[in-house]
Amino acid sequence: MSAESTAVEPGWLPATPDWFLDALQRWDASGRQSNRGHAYLVSSEEAAEANLFNRVLAAALLCSDAESKEPCGDCKGCRAYRQGAHGDLMILEREEGKRAIGIEQVRSATRFLQQTALYGVRKILLVQEADLMTPAAANSLLKTLEEPSGSSLLLLSTSAAWRLPPTVRSRCQALRLPKASPESAAVWLAEQSGWPANEVDKALRMTDGNPVSALDKASRDAMYFSGALEESFSALLGSAATHIGVPEAWSRAEPEVLLERLLPFIETHCRRADSHYLRHEGISWMLLHHCVAELQGRIKRGATPGSDILAAEVYRLCRSREHEEFPRVSRDFLANIGRLGVGG
Asked: What pLDDT shows up at residue 158?
């Protein structure tokens, strides 16, 4: 593989989740009907799930065993995939320390697709979390989406297709992954992780029932899986809240992880159906949600705030929720959000 391309991470794939099967069957059917496209946009509620689907599909296509619908794991192609060294596969993703996929990365991917396939079949490009492409990067990809080189295949994944330009979405065939049922999610996660039932249940609660995201996040962030963030939210915002100062877990967490876990906790309170609760509490919870969601959106668009400063400001915002002046506090927070390094 050339120095410009990004290899897959070493290691093999987890078992294919059963809720992927319908989308995989639709993929197979498109090939039999000779209407298979060269670019697909795979969307899911969680980016990790869409990423895994594309990796499973790519591994099957790169497998040398023509009789198998799933990667055999033993052929030359599968061995290269396992080693992260398959010359016909490139993964385009946000680089470490950056908030977006840049135009130079897309140009590098375009050059990769223009090269001759080393195994003589096809070149495959996986664009993970495609919604993180900058506008310039997305525009740079358009020509490749319109006129791909040779038998190239582009597989884009996203959990926020609406963030992609319409010009990109219109050039891709869409595959939407369904949400796993609670039963399927628990069985799959237990089999892949080896965790006891109580740990599986906790991981699924923390990821809103998404087992792929639970497995992915737990493998990358022990603190996330430990429940330290969730416990701190209850201490600050729960029914028996006590103000404890900025929790250590908040300062240690990456800003996007902190906000990603905080939003569902707030949403739970926003969904309360009791009319008395909504009159007296709902407005402040919705204002808090608006502020945190706006902050998260700016980070996803490329802002890079410092973890300590962001944690302190979000903590002060949350602590003010029950104060009668909270509507003004929330407006001031939004007006001054640029001070966190989250302008735009």
From this structure: 95
